[in-house]
Structures are given as structure tokens and as C-alpha cells.
UniProtKB/TrEMBL annotation:
Record keywords, A-Z: Amino-acid transport, Membrane, Transmembrane, Transmembrane helix, Transport
Bilayer topology annotation: Multi-pass membrane protein
Pfam family, one: AA_permease
Residue ranges of the TM segments: 87-108, 120-143
Gene Ontology CC terms, in alphabetical order: membrane
Record flagged with keyword Transport: yes
Region of interest: Disordered: 53-75
Chief place where the protein resides: membrane
Localisation: Membrane
InterPro entries: AA-permease/SLC12A_dom, Amino_acid_permease_CS, APC_YAT
Record protein name field: Amino acid permease/ SLC12A domain-containing protein
Biased composition (Basic and acidic residues): 64-75
């Protein structure tokens, strides 16, 4: 536990007193305790501080009536209006890359069509599970940010920082590759 002593004017933290002593100096002691990695991981699964209209219980609905997941859509900051098919299409669109068009030729030549179909089925099954798990996280813990924010919340802020920069560098490399592959395919 580290403690630091800082001298700050009295009115920095509160309103001036009735007699107007604005120049009085007080010593404030701030303590910052860094918990262990295991404790931070355990604490990351605690519910976030409650905000207005953050309930996810389903209301009873009649057939044909749209479910609203117990969230008042007008007052909440993040609306939960994505259906399962929307989440699946976002996951599929984010998973298909240049390898589908450019890399398939070499795999087809070396392994044949059966190996290629089997390979796509196995990898597609694994990617589907990962993307649906990420989609469920997005529904249960709505955030305004990219997926690396979940790494910051559930693992460590430093891990989330590294994931964010890895994602940025990934797109700095992948975007020219996508443009080159599009030029080759067209």
C-alpha cells in the first residue's frame, strides 16, 4: 500500500466555510491499493454499478408481440435491438477475410475439395462459437467501445490496452492486404 501526502487548498475539495477561510492549507493523504491479479479477475465478474434501465429480465409477452428485454428503449443509453440473425451476420461478416478468396486456391490444390470442405467446416464451427460467445457478452454487458474493453474488464487493464493496440496494428496491415486481394480477385 502506497501513501502520498499532497498539500492542496481547502476549497479545492469543498465549498468555502461560512467565515470565508479560502487560503487554509490542509494535508490530504491518498491511498492507492493495487489488488492482486486473481482478485481483479474475481472482481471483474461482479455486476457493474447499477444504471438506469439496465435490467435484462424478459417481460411476459404474448405471441406476436415484440420482446423488449425489460429495458425502456427511450431512456437507456445503449439499445438492445439486435436479433440473433443480426449477431450471426455480424460475426460471419467479421470472420470472412481475404483467405476465403485468395488462400483457397493453394489449399484446394494441395488437399483437394473434400479436405477443403472439411477444413472450412471445422474452422467455421470454432469461429461460430467464439463469435456467438462475444455476441452474448455484448448483449449482457453492453459497452460503448470495441471488444478489447472486455479484456480490460475481465482480465486486466494492461491486457485490454495491449489488445487494443494489437487490433489497431492488425487493421493497419490487413486493410492494404484486403485491397490487394480485391484487386487480384477482380
Amino acid at each position: 500500500m502506497a501513501a502520498t501526502s499532497v498539500e492542496m487548498p481547502y476549497d479545492y475539495y469543498s465549498n468555502p466555510s461560512a467565515d470565508g477561510n479560502r487560503g487554509e492549507i490542509v494535508t490530504a493523504v491518498f491511498t492507492k491499493e493495487r489488488s492482486s491479479l486473481l482478485q481483479r479477475m474475481i472482481d471483474s465478474f461482479k455486476p457493474a454499478e447499477a444504471t438506469q434501465n439496465n435490467s435484462i429480465e424478459l417481460k411476459a409477452t404474448s405471441p406476436g408481440e415484440e420482446r423488449d428485454n425489460g429495458v425502456d428503449k427511450d431512456d437507456s443509453k445503449l439499445h438492445r435491438t439486435l436479433k440473433n440473425r443480426h449477431l450471426q451476420m455480424i460475426a460471419i461478416g467479421g470472420s470472412i477475410g481475404t483467405g476465403l478468396f485468395v488462400g483457397s486456391g493453394g489449399a484446394l490444390a494441395s488437399g483437394g475439395p473434400a479436405a477443403l470442405v472439411l477444413d472450412f467446416a471445422i474452422i467455421g464451427f470454432m469461429l461460430f462459437n467464439v463469435c456467438m460467445a462475444l455476441a452474448e457478452l455484448a448483449v449482457v454487458f453492453p459497452i460503448s467501445g470495441s471488444f478489447y474493453v472486455y479484456s480490460s474488464r475481465f482480465l486486466d487493464p494492461a491486457w485490454g490496452f495491449a489488445m487494443g493496440w494489437n487490433y489497431a496494428f492488425n487493421w493497419l496491415i490487413v486493410m492494404p492486404l484486403e485491397l490487394t486481394a480485391a484487386g487480384l480477385v477482380i
